[in-house]
Structure prediction request, 290 residues.
Amino acid sequence: MTPPERPDVIDVPSETEAADGASGSTTLTATIGPARRMDVIDVTAGFGGKTIIANIGLKVEPNSVTALIGPSGCGKSTLLRCLNAMHGTAKNAWVRGQILLDGVDINAGGVDPVLVRRRVGMVFQRPNPFPTMSIYDNVAAGLRLTAGGRGRHDETVERALRQADLWNEVKDRLRSMGGALSGGQQQRLCIARALAVEPEVVLMDEPCSALDPISTSKIEETILSLRERYTIVIVTHNMQQAARVSDTTAFMTILEAGRPGELVEAGPTSAIFDQPTNEVTGAYVSGQFG
Ligand SMILES: Nc1ncnc2c1ncn2[C@@H]1O[C@H](COP(=O)(O)OP(=O)(O)OP(=O)(O)O)[C@@H](O)[C@H]1O
Ligand SMILES: [Mg+2]
Prediction:
């Protein structure tokens, strides 16, 4: 497959520079194209004196959908935010361990968190389009933040809206306000906004929890089609959704009150649901707690 054209050029540290811990901006241009793998190695993260997740190890394969499941409060969103360096931007937040994007530690010196977030996009639980901005401008918003990103982005906007399965519903009203769309359409608009900047990995934190079943099913179809091109990690409380859309499932929980969230097991989704190796996983996926 021919790699898609990037809307612009992103400078990222080379692997050698990142490994050396070199600081400052660098000159390497991000290679574009295939989805990227992520490796979470012994990650512990928290706020101030509190550890929220501990010793997480997870391989996120390219061109696959990984579902993060587990009871409320076990740290799924925290882990997701670590994957695009957002966790570290919160007050008193800290993270230890390594998070590798195609072998490069995203927390290494010299790696710009803004660029990490550009390569690893995020879609949140509640659709959060800019309500008074047009549909077109919502999708183009990320492109306009970059140098040389002003001007028209017709092709990119159309491509992103098609990928998010929203194009046919909005192509005749691209100048209408984003806030005028239905909740499900707004969430697909947010997916389009995330895709417009050509990320390599897309993180989704309960993207369907505020949506009706029809909108949910549209988003699930979108996720399945995006797998061809992106690496996707989705947090969901919906076991059927995890089973429908994911290739790999990772189950996290708090094993005892007062302990941080831990990864109990991860593996092919069918195995996690049908033959989990850990009995706590079995109890969770069969609805006995959580
Ligand atoms: N800014 C913060 N400061 C301190 N503790 C926080 C902060 N944000 C989250 N936490 C705590 O971290 C823990 C994990 O939160 P997180 O949102 O990651 O859980 P979750 O698994 O995503 O839960 P849910 O399924 O309800 O979304 C919770 O106990 C939460 O109270
Ligand atoms: Mg959460």
Notes: Residues 7-130+199-285 form a domain with the Rossmann fold fold (CATH 3.40.50.300). Confidence is low (pLDDT under 50) at residues 1-32. The chain is about 30% helix and 20% strand.
